[in-house]
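Example A, followed by Example B.
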Amino acid sequence: MFERVDDRVSVIFSPEERSLLGQIPDLLDNVTEENDPGFAVLHRPLYPDDPDSSAELAGLIDRDLQRERDRDRSVISRIASGERTVSNQDARRFLRSINEARIVLAARAGAFEVDASWEQNISTEPALAAVAWLGYVQGELIEALSDDR
């Protein structure tokens, strides 16, 4: 799936996997409603006990955070479109987007509201199957980035 060579990472996905990856930017771009469980996990208060400070800090960093998230998601789009080699930095951007997609999907499926038994529903819940597959992808990329070559 991934192989690191110097400062580059080779990316190998099937057309079906690329199709799934191609859905991630839209998924994340559409997390805009405050009542969406995915919104709650992506926009946690920075100071849970101090809403005013949280709002102030969010106002200072939200624009930069969104710009970085857009850059991260562009890497997913490029890989979904067929790009087969990315820089280590872009691989890390890919990793961040995969992580965001996993937590949004898991939150929407209620996986944070139950114990680890959610894994038993992977075969019947497509969102949970996606969470599991993205976790596998994440682990493979972390391993590739950790290789000392």
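Example B, a separate protein, is given below in the same form.
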Amino acid sequence: MYVQKSGSRVLWYESFGFGLILLLSWLNKVVDLPHLLVGGDGHASKWRDSAIETVLILLIWAFVHSLTSRLVARLHFLEGMLRVCAWCRKVGHGERWMRLEEYFAEDFKIGTTHGVCPDCLKRLEDDTKQFYRSEAESAPQVLAAPTPQPESPTIPA
């Protein structure tokens, strides 16, 4: 079964977004963005505040990144599972439900054959023996009818 590994793309987008936040944070300290965008008095920035802000952003990124990577791993695990109907044993593939043999033939290009595993064979033999025993016990006992004796020939007088 082919499972897309697109979750790593999500992690890259997430990392890019946090990198952009860091870039804007440092750009704000260097260029004083509020002063450039809306005017007003200049603002003296402290580099120590910028360093603390950067560390906080990196800690938040590490927390969010670890949670997202765990979610993506769980998603890949769940996508890799095969949906099987509990009643008829058909396999769910996209929007269709098909027999297991068809699924293997279509997705894996594998032919299938049938056999009986040792556990099922033993269970089948036990069930068969039990069936024959119950049939023998419930059947009426038929006594053998006496075999007819040949009559002795009578001589007419």
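On Example B: Residues 50 and 75 are 37 Å apart (CA to CA).
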